[in-house]
Every structure is written in C-alpha cells, then in structure tokens.
Amino acid sequence: MSDSTGSDRLAQLRHAHDHGAAASSHEARTRWVVALTFAMMVAELVVGYATNSLALTADGWHMATHAGALGMAAFAYWFARKQSGSSAFSFGTGKVHALAGYTSAVVLALIALLMVVESLRRFLHPESIAFSEALPVAVVGLAVNLVSVRLLHAGDHHHEAHDDHPEHDHHDHGHDDHDDEHAHGHHHGHDHNLRAAYFHVLADALTSVLAILALLGGRTFGWTFLDAAMGIVGGLVIAKWSYGLCRQAARQLLDVVPSESLAQRIRDRIESTFAGASVVDLHLWDIGPGARACIVSVAVPSPLAPSAYRDALVPIASLQHVTVEVHPLSAGDARRGS
C-alpha cells in the first residue's frame, strides 16, 4: 500500500469517528428566531408600558423567558460546533443538544405553571384590559411566531431527511430501524435542542392565538373571563409539550436503549451470520442527533477480525461508532452452551 493510500485511509477513519454536530443550518435558523423573538419582546414591553396594558406587558416578559431559552439553544449549537473536535468529549458533543433541550423543557414547564397560577389569580381578581391597544400587537406577535415556527419546522425536516440518507462513514447506512422508531413515538434523528426551540416558538404562537381569541371576546362581548380561561388552557397544553420533550431528552442523556427491537436485530444478525457465535453483551445508545454507538461482545469458536463483525452490521443499523469485543469459544464451551 502506498503512503498516499494509507493517508487516505487514515483520513477516512478519522472522519468516520468524528462525532461533532454538523448543525450549521440549525444554528443559523435558531439565531434568526432569537432575533425575531427579542424584537417582538421589546415591542410588546414598550407598547405595554406606554398604554398601561397589563396583558401586553405580561406577554412581553413571557417572550423574554422564551428569548432566553432560545438564546441557550443557539449557544448550545455554537458550543457543540466549537468543541466538536475536542478529545475531551469521548463521543463528541452531540449530547449538548439533548442537555439544552432538557433544560428548555424545564423552562417550558415553569412557564406553564406561571401561566396557570396567573390565570387563576385573574379569575379571583379580574383586571381591566386595554383591548384596542393590545389586539393589534397580539396579531403582529402571532405573525412573528408563525414565521419562527416555519423556520424551525423546516430545519427539523431537513435534519430528518439528512439522517435518512447519510453520505459518510460506511457504518452509517442501514434503515431497517426506522419503523421501530416510529412505533416508539420518536425518530432517532431528532435534535432535541431544535425541538425545544420549536416548542418554545410554538408555545408563543399558541398563547398569541389564545390571547387574540380572549381579546376579541372581551372587546366584542365583554367576556373578560376569557383572558384567564385561555391562560389555563395554554398552560396545560404547554405543560404536555414540556413533559414529552423532557422525557425524550432524558432518555438520551441517561443512555436508555433507543430501540429494543434494533438491539435484538443486532444480536440476530451476528449469531445467524457467524457459525456458533453468541452475543454475550450488547450496549446500544444515542450519542447525538442521528448518531448511535454500539459495543458488542461476541463469543465464537472460530474468531475473525473485529472488522468482520462490524461489517455484518452495516445493512441493518445506522451506527456511527461500533466497538466489537471477540472472545474465543472452545469446543467444550460451545457444547455446554448448547
């Protein structure tokens, strides 16, 4: 083998084990959404104080909490990108996204709780609302939120499409696990950081819609109680989103097996491909958006090189990092095992 060929092979191996997050598109989209949210927050606070509208002022501070959470999502993308080549992270920085998503889910839960508490307080102590001043700004806020939702929703679809057709790393090709992922209610390529940002702007859009309905009902029919009622409805819906996001991000952070049926297919593939082989230990976990790692311990009478067992897994699973331990199995051991 020539020096150039050897260098090319080393470069390929290094690329195959580069666990950095290639999420520049998501980072750019998130930054745009942060800018839009921050601008809308300033507008609501300025108009709210100028018109003495409590509804607008409260929503402005509500937007401030989302701007902070979205800013954290943008920071997570920046940090993951900057540290993607650092050897300090054993499996790369992919879980930074899950950590940011989990934290954002907790923030969403707190926002939902505050919305419900404030709504209950307004039921007990109704306050006057400046309907004419608040309604136009609420409509503008909804438009901004819809643009933000569109930006992040498009980014999530692009990410899933990219994960379904990986272009690099010959260990990253199978698609047999997709049906199982949908059966479990999530896709292995989900970027929890992006999903958290998406839920934040979706929550803003929901509260804007509910606020518009409450303001219209209050201005037209004098139903001031709608403001508090819509706050409770919105808080409960946001709490449900928060729970789902928190649960999924926590599974990745705790290295929960992402797919039991995929783990079984890995076992079946090894044991059916190699005569007498037995999978004695298997670890399968997510290391980031669209990236999984696997450690397989194989006991076999006639051991082959670990690369043979890794190659056998190529058709059935999207695995970025595979470690194979091979243990020789004597004839006596094989008879006792059978």
TrEMBL record:
Residues 34-254 form the Cation efflux protein transmembrane domain. The keyword DNA-binding does not apply. The keyword Cell inner membrane does not apply. It is a multi-pass membrane protein. The chain crosses the membrane at residues 32-51, 63-79, 99-117, 129-152, 197-217, 223-243. GO terms for molecular function: zinc ion transmembrane transporter activity. It holds the Pfam family Cation_efflux. It is found in: Membrane. InterPro entries: Cation_efflux, Cation_efflux_TM, Cation_efflux_TMD_sf, Msc2-like. GO terms for biological process: intracellular zinc ion homeostasis. Residues 158-183 have a biased composition (Basic and acidic residues). Keywords: Ion transport, Membrane, Transmembrane, Transmembrane helix, Transport. It comes from the Bacteria. Residues 158-189 are annotated as: Disordered. One of its GO terms (cellular component) is membrane. NCBIfam families: CDF, CDF_efflux_DmeF. This is Cation efflux system protein. It comes from Sorangium cellulosum (strain So ce56).
